[in-house]
Amino acid sequence: MKADNAIDLVNVTKKFDEVTAVSKFTVEIRKGEFFSLLGPSGCGKTTTLRMIAGLEVPTEGQILLEGGDVSSTPAYRRNVNTVFQDYALFPHMTVRKNIYFPLKMKKISPSEAETRIERVLRLVNMEGFGNRLPQQLSGGQRQRIALARSLVNEPAALLLDEPLGALDFKLRVAMQKVLKDIQRNVGITFIYVTHDQSEAMTMSDRIAVMKDGLAHQIATPDEIYNNPSTAFVASFIGDMNFVHGTVLDNDGKTCVLDVEGQKVTAKRAVDLGKGAAALVCIRTERVQVNPHRSVENRVSAELSRIIYRGTDYEATCRIGRAELRAVVQAVTWDAALRVGGTVELAWNAEDVIVFPREEEKDVIKYSGEAV
Amino acid sequence: MRGRGTGLKIYGTLIFVFLYFPMVIVLLFSFSPTRTIVGLSGLTLKWYQELFQDPRLLIAFWHTVMVGLCAVAIATVFGTAGAFFVTRVEFPGKGVFRALVMLPFLLPGIIMGVTLLIFFRNLNVHLSMFTILMGHVSFTTPLVMFQVSSRLSRMGPTYRWAAMDLGANPVQTFWHVTLPMIRTALIGAGLLAFTVSFDEIVISYFLTGTWMTLPVYIYGMMRFGLSPKVYAISTIILILSLVLITFMARYTGRSADTYRVRKRDAG
Questions:
Q1: What are the beta bridge partners of residue A262?
Q2: For a tag site, which of A83, A165, A291, B37 has the least CB within 10 Å?
């Protein structure tokens, strides 16, 4: 609860009747941070955002804004602004009047307002659109105006609820860069809700990965990708192989497992005893096919499917009953490989992540990327 | 293909004739100097002149306008409040509540008329403009409520959230955001309510004493046969209704796009 935090959530819980939407969420969000709430639909990310905005009241816990408790302050007295998924630009007001609205509510003088409106229109690169009506703008333009309207009062934090969800893929990628640039320019804390893991990974300083109202992990994108704290996080971000294994030996630093009769070594702290049922995870792009260099883990497998995806090949291989996918850059792909042939798969011991088998139920079968 | 198309065209024309022929007849009769349309010999405005020389008819007309305007004013306030209630408040049995509120509009006028008459008689309320007005309020209020609540639910809560998020308290949110956005629905509902109230006869007939509205008065006139004056007044009412309905159609669109298109035209 340091003074330079933009937002502190302390044990924030939200229940709707008997359903717990958010459960004991605690996080410190620093000033100027780009913080994402990531998770599948129904994970509580939007509810969390709405509690910060003041549109929902937490059942338990506290919300601090720049150190002050705002848990019971109504939305209109909180110094945070939201960009809604459908923008919510007022259709009966021009762009200029839309942006003037929050200034008018704060009783900013018209001349001062005029300079601020011009400045913020320039920031989002929409000068000259002031007299248009929202319905005369494209999706991307509306997005920029919604952003301008939320930024014009220079809030302590800007809350964004899936703001790119309604845009098509190319525009979404372009807007990600625009958003990130604007955030760097104004230095305002952004709290960003998304179900799109690649969006969260590209833009965020830190991400909270949520499921069923629980924050599974709060960390940097790098940490989340390389050291997921639960099998759910491991499955939700990036492309991951999951195979069953049994712990053969574990000294706290190195864990040796049996996977379909072959030995797999993991070089990391694993909290499982000898004989425990484990879920073994390896990133698809860390699996090498017929490598030249020697690495700790080598297993032989049968190549059962090859998919060409332009920049890379995805090779699905069978090891007994288990299936392992390897994603290989197209330039390094061995064109002699055929379905039905035998290959040697290899990966580093550092790249093996091990979870208790119980967590298998949390595994998301397909990556969380928006289709 | 061609045969079927022709058949449909004839069918459509017949329906059109069936619906509009009587109105055209009334319109023609109102300008006919004789009482028959056969051998129409010239046009005349004398029935219209006679209308304007009938003080009781003019008073009845004025009564109708007054009842209509008062009913619209009351129905707009209560109907809008009701619309906010049903769209924003969740409670068990909401569906039943909505249906019950719509009932006075949907029930046969004779039921409403008799029911209200018994009600007022038992309370010893003298039949007057007040009783007629209450009758009209009973069916115009659900009308307004229906129009406004469907606009509100189509709008969704996001605009309200956005307004509050941007610093507007509930009163400011209503005044600057919600009200302007339901304005067209309010005007449309008001016009519709007025149109319905203007030609309402069944309920009014039960609740009328000596204080008559125009439809009730016309009904009375007809006891002495179909005078061309009735045709003339009918024609005036017809044209007035058409004007009101045209305006109303501009304001009560089914989709949000209507709002957009209209706004763009205005801009």
A1: A259
A2: B37
From first CA to last CA, the distance across chain A in angstroms is: 38
Q: Decide if B179 contacts A92 (C-beta within 8 A).
A: no
Query: In the structure encoding, which two tokens stand for residue B177, read together?
Result: 């955001």
Tokens of B125: 């309320």
Residue of A nearest to B160 (CA): A88
Residue A321 has phi, psi (to 5 degrees) of -90, -15
B46-266 is classed CATH 1.10.3720.10: yes
> Rounded distance, CA A52 to CA A159, Å?
8
Q: Tokens at residue B24, please? A: 């055209």
Task: Quickly list DSSP for A291-338.
Answer: -SS--SEEEEEEEEEEEE-SSEEEEEEEETTEEEEEEEEGGG--TT--
Nearest-by-Cβ selection for B161 from A55, A102, A135: A55
* Residue A251 predicted with pLDDT over 60: yes
Q: Which of B164, B177, B264 sits opposite A76 (nearest CB)?
A: B164
Nearest CA in chain A to B184: A92
B158: nearest CB among A84, A105, A106: A84
- Under 8 Å CB-to-CB from A180, ≥6 apart: which residues? A34, A202, A203
Domain locations in chain B? 1-44, 46-266
Question: A263: helix, coil or strand?
Answer: strand
Radius of gyration of chain B (CA): 23
> Which chain B residue has its CA at the smallest distance from A153's CA?
B166
Token digits of residue A25: 């969420």
Residue B238 has which token pair? 């017809």
- Write out the residues of chain B at the interface with chain A, using a CB-CB cutoff of 8 A: 158-159, 161-169, 172, 176-177, 180-181, 259-260, 263-264, 267
Mutate which: A16, A98, A105, vs B, most B CBs within 10 A: A105
Distance from CA of A83 to the nearest CA of B (A): 8
- Give mean pLDDT in consecutive 10-residue pieces for chain B, a chain of 267 residues: 75 91 85 69 80 87 94 96 92 88 87 92 90 94 93 93 96 95 91 90 89 88 80 87 83 50 38
Facing residues of A357 across strands?
none
Q: ipTM score of the complex?
A: 0.84
Nearest CA of chain B to the CA of A88: how many Å? 5
Are A280 and A352 within 8 A, CB to CB? yes
Q: Do B166 and A54 touch (CB under 8 A)?
A: no
Tally C-beta pairs within 8 A across A and B: 69
Report strand pairing: A342-347 vs A288-289: antiparallel
What is the number of H-type helices and E-type strands within chain A? 8, 20
Residue A99: its chain B contacts at CB < 8 A? none
**A134-169 pLDDT per residue, tens:** 999 998 899 999 999 999 999 999 999 999 987 888
Of A53, A92, A135, the CB nearest to B165: A53
Q: Closest Cα of chain A to B263: distance in Å?
A: 8
Residue B263 to residue A92, Cβ atoms within 8 A:
yes
Q: Which helix (H) or strand (E) holds A242?
A: strand A240-250
Q: What's the DSSP call for residue A18?
A: T
- Residue B196 has which token pair? 């319905």
